[in-house]
Amino acid sequence: MTNEVHRQTVFIVDDDPSIRDALGLLFSLHGHATAMFACAEDFLRAIEPGWRGVVIADIRMGGMSGPEMQEALAGHPSRLPVIVITAHADIAAARQAFKFHAVDFGEALRP
């Protein structure tokens, strides 16, 4: 992926393929470029400083969690904002997401 492709992209990081597909379709239908990653580790290996847009990440994933990914992104030069989604929302989860500077937190309905 080149920086040119990622001027304004919605980066979807979720271990559930049905959620990734649904979000990708939703944003694509509204004219947004999307890139999907099955885990935080894949996203962190791929991210480049020139990428622009927003990250939508699940809070609970196999391997690294959404907030752990946010913490790893804290020193990255791209400074992508992160929106955390979950099917398991509670105050502690929201607090953890905002601790690592999430710009929003929302509960997603699972299919």
Structural class: alpha/beta
Report the CATH superfamily.
Response regulator
Tally of discrete structural domains: 1
Distance between the termini: 30 Å
CATH architectural arrangement: 3-Layer(aba) Sandwich
Major beta sheet, specifics? 5 strands, parallel
The side-by-side strand order for the widest beta sheet comes to 2-1-3-4-5
**Average pLDDT for all residues:** 79
Total count of helical runs of at least 4 residues? 4
CATH fold annotation = Rossmann fold
Low-confidence stretches: none
Strand content: 15-25%
Query: What is the count of β-strands?
Result: 5
Gyration radius, rounded: 13 Å
Note the run of SSEs as H and E: EHEHEHEHE
What is the name of the CATH class?
Answer: Alpha Beta
Question: Please, could you describe this protein's structure?
Answer:
Helix 1 links the parallel strand 1 (9-13) and strand 2 (33-37). The chain has a single domain, classed as Rossmann fold, CATH 3.40.50. The protein is of the alpha/beta class and 111 residues long. A five-stranded parallel β-sheet has the order 2-1-3-4-5, sandwiched between helices. The protein starts with 8 loop residues before the first strand and ends with a strand. It has four helices and five strands, in the order E-H-E-H-E-H-E-H-E.
Supply database-style keywords:
single chain; 111 residues; alpha/beta; Rossmann fold; five-stranded parallel sheet; 33% helix; globular
